Amino acid sequence: MSVETRYFGTSLDPAAVSAAQLLRLVRGHWSVENSLHFEKDRWWDEDRHVCRRPGLAERFTTLLTAAVSVLRALNPGAPGEPLRAQADALNWDIERAVNLLVR
């Protein structure tokens, strides 16, 4: 058995926040990294893109985040189908993709 100890810095008042509440806040913060950023890095290889023009990388990541958010909101695929599979299916059926956005 192993034990891990992690330390977090916060400006929250220890008298106003319990340990359980703090743990929930920390896990909520990391859920973003473990969901959205993981998808963008793993499936769309965002970290490998090299942009030499100033501001282009920020625009690219904004568009990718918007695309992932729209896919999640519209959920155009079968239940349980991975988001990347849904994106690939829409890529092959542009008319369906446009119809999803127009509805």
Report on the architecture of this protein:
It is a single chain. The longest helix is centred in the first third of the chain and has 26 residues, at 19-44. The N and C termini lie far apart (53 Å). This protein has 4 helices and no strands. The protein has 103 residues and is mainly alpha-helical. The mean pLDDT is 83.
Record keyword descriptors for this entry.
mainly alpha; single chain; 103 residues; elongated; 4 helices
Q: How many angstroms separate the termini?
A: 53 Å
Report the portion of residues in β strands.
under 5%
Structural class determined from secondary elements:
mainly alpha
Count of helical regions: 4
Quick one: biggest sheet?
none
Helix content: 55-70%
Large-scale geometry: elongated
Summarize the helix and strand pattern as letters. HHHH
Mean pLDDT: 83
How many strands appear in the DSSP assignment? 0
Low-confidence sequence ranges:
none
**Rg, Å, rounded:** 19 Å
